[in-house]
What does this fold into?
Amino acid sequence: MKKIQAIRGMNDLLPGQSGRWQYLEGVVSDLLRRYHYQEIRFPILEQTELFKRSIGEVTDIVEKEMYTFADRNDESVTLRPEGTACCVRACEEHGLLYNQTQKLWYAGPMFRYEKPQKGRLRQFHQIGVEAFGMATPDVDAELLILTARLWRELGISDAVTLQINSLGVPEARAAYREALVAYLSGHRDALDEDSLRRLESNPLRVLDSKDPNTQALLADAPRLGDYLDDESRQHFEQVCALLTAAGVPFEVNERLVRGLDYYTKTVFEWVTDKLGAQGTVCAGGRYDGLVEQLGGRATPAVGFAMGIERLILLLEALDCVPEAATQLPDVYIVAVGDVSAASLALAEALRNALPYLAVQTHCGGGSFKSQMKKADKSGAPIALILGEDEVKAGQIGVKFLREQAEQQTLDQAATIELLKSL
Ligand code: ATP
Ligand code: MG
It folds into this structure.
């Protein structure tokens, strides 16, 4: 029979890899705790309308990337392509935004029907952070300072750079869009196919084009910065000043526009040159209009999401995965003969006395030789050996598997003391 395989672009996370994810997720969630951002969880499936109304009808995501289908009741539902819209929906539904501020985070899978490749999957994972109810640049800066600290704690600071820009309020952006369309329309011949399409649907995205001819054309295009409203300009200058004061280096990238419609004012991306084409590991910005757009009271907001797969790739590329994240056992208990009760009891005693140890008991029987082979393969530095003779004598064989040393025979208390001293 033909075996059933996973859906293209949807990966399994295998035991050898999951320790890295737990490490990364652990560092991030602890950091967010220290900034007092609180976790929120919401469903993976939402009404399709939520994403159409928030992300925008003429964006790549809504036009061609959503997993949308009719449920059994013929309602159109969509596997979430991102978390911000869901987060706003959940907050509104539970009155979390009424006359109060919120600093929140979430983690989990997102779904986009894209062409699978390195760093680009159809089910991928994000950790997102959102701050609601604060219009001032201090919170934009806090999010970036927090992210910069995260890169330091992960040891990848040198490999990422912060690019930042301001899109202004919607009116300013509309005026700029008009000027850009007027300019580009005069040079249609020089535009690549994608950009021609975007010129009609989402002209700001032309600024994103990687096509050299389009890039050359953009050198003389009207500049977004010249169209910014005073309030956005001031806000942006203050964000930049706060970053400078905090010692977070950044580059202003006037062509940074982001692919979702809801952004206003500040937008940013953390990018690396270590991962090839998929170099954005974290991206976000301010979205002061979104809550109202989704039917709530006008509420300023700013947030970002980072891609876990890309961060893991980066940690691996830079050799920044700590040894603990490989999740090897510290001790492997070899149990030969009729000693199951003693071996399980020894393991429990070790876990009582040394709660941080990862103790693997050998289950399933087998000869001494085959069990020692498994102990070796487990990667554990130490094997504790129990046979019927040892159990009768109240002794344990202690064998170092990664270094030259005589095997010792100790009682349980001495074994615990030895393990404690390592
Ligand atoms: P890109 O320009 O790479 O397509 P995006 O602008 O679509 O990214 P966002 O929607 O801002 O990305 O998502 C934030 C982060 O989530 C990205 O910076 C990236 O790290 C990650 N991400 C987005 N799409 C994918 C995907 N298909 N596979 C893996 N990670 C992704
Ligand atoms: Mg994308």
